[in-house]
Specification:
alpha+beta; 31% helix; globular
C-alpha cells in the first residue's frame, strides 16, 4: 500500500471560480460517464444535453449562486461536489466526482464532509441529494455520512432521493 499525502478540501463560491480551478475537466468526466451509465454514451461535450454543456463551458455562471467544494492533490484538482444555497432550509449536493485515478483514498468522503459543513455554515437545516440507483458505492457512502432514503421529489426512473438532517 502506498502512502499518500492528505488531499486538501476547500469551498469556493461559484461566482469566484476560474478556469484554473479545473472544475470543467471534472464535470466533463462526470457527465460523459453518467450518460454512458444511462446507456446514452456520447463521444464529446458537444453531444451532451444543453444544461450539462453549459455547466462544463462556464461553471462560474452555472454555479454562480452555489458553492463548489474542491479536492486538491498537490496542485491538481481531483474531486468536486456542488452545494446549492439553502432554499426553505435545504441545500442540495450534486455532481460529486473523484478522478478515478485517485479513488480509494477517502476523497469522496472528505468532499461530502466538506459539503455538509458548508451547508451547515450557510444555515441549511437539512441537505438533500439524488443519486442513480445503480451507484451502490455512492449510496453506501451517503448512508455512512448520515443520509437516509426519502420519498422522491424527482420523477425520473432510477433516482434515489436522500436527505441528511
Amino acid at each position: 500500500m502506498t502512502d499518500h499525502p492528505p488531499v486538501a478540501v476547500t469551498a469556493v463560491a461559484g461566482r469566484d471560480l476560474s478556469r484554473a480551478d479545473g472544475l470543467a475537466e471534472l464535470l466533463t468526466a462526470y457527465h460523459l460517464f453518467t450518460e454512458a451509465e444511462k446507456g446514452l454514451a456520447v463521444g464529446s461535450v458537444d453531444e451532451l444535453p444543453d444544461r450539462y454543456r453549459s455547466e462544463i463551458r462556464s461553471p462560474r455562471s452555472a454555479f454562480a449562486d452555489d458553492t463548489v467544494v474542491l479536492a486538491r492533490d498537490g496542485r491538481a484538482v481531483v474531486g468536486c461536489v456542488v452545494v446549492t444555497a439553502p432554499v426553505e432550509g435545504a441545500s442540495e449536493i450534486k455532481r460529486l466526482w473523484v478522478d478515478p485515478s485517485v479513488r480509494g483514498r477517502g476523497i469522496a468522503s472528505a468532499l461530502v464532509e466538506g459539503a455538509l459543513a458548508h451547508a451547515a455554515e450557510s444555515g441549511a437545516s437539512r441537505v438533500r441529494l439524488s443519486v442513480w440507483s445503480w451507484r451502490s458505492g455512492a449510496i453506501a457512502l451517503y448512508e455512512r455520512a448520515g443520509f437516509g432514503v426519502v420519498d422522491s421529489w424527482d420523477a425520473r426512473d432510477g433516482l434515489v432521493c436522500m436527505e441528511h438532517a
